[in-house]
Design a protein that fits this description.
Blueprint (H helix, E strand, L loop, with lengths): L1 H37 L3 H5 L5 H7 L1 H25 L2 H26 L1 H22 L6 H13 L14 H6 L25 H26 L2
Helix pairs in contact: 1-4, 1-9, 4-5, 5-9
Membrane topology: Multi-pass membrane protein
Subunit structure: Interacts with SLC19A2. Interacts with NTRK1/TRKA.
Subcellular location: Endomembrane system; Membrane
Amino acid sequence: HQLFGYQHFSTFVFNKRKKFIQLSGGATAGFGIWSQISSKTSEVFKTIDGTILTMTLSMGAPMLIALGCIFTLMGLIGFCGTLKKKSWMLLVFFVVVLIIFILQVILAVFILLPKSKENVFSSLEVKLVESLKNNYGQEDSPVTSIWNETMTKLNCCGYKCYDDFTNSPFVKRNSEYPKQCCSKDSNSRCGKQEAMNKGCFHVLLNENIPISGALLFLIGILQVNNM
């Protein structure tokens, strides 16, 4: 009777852990959906070119959604395997979850390492600044609308600082920097003295990306802990 009770309790705990895997998968997918809907920063890169790096950056949120869906499916397989005592289901569950965990940790470490982030974005710097300087301010230009939204949401100016706009057609034509580069409370013209010195690259690199990396790492640890 005691043995039966222990087995029943073990099965209950094991199934609870599989449900946690499903919930964490849902959380990962939910974070990906939120990133896809709320973040427009990646759109800046899409206006530059169609390189593999640009495509990879723009696929970040869809990859999180896919990863979350896979974890949810694996949690279901693990739950069914425990319930029906199917060893092959449990084997598939453990192998797939372990592989995805390893990939999550590698991606999280890559995201959190300062040097790797700098190497990724430095290759885009020249094209981004060139596109910003030459195309910003043109009527119906996606570059203008995307940068305006990015600078407003991240409270930043240009790629590295306001100087990215210096000698641009926009500044020459208007004799001032974009309104988004100055304080929201400022009603005066946005000149060099008033423009923010904080670039969007700095904000993206040091404030937004580490959050994604830390979340991936934390979710991965919790998933393996509940295998």
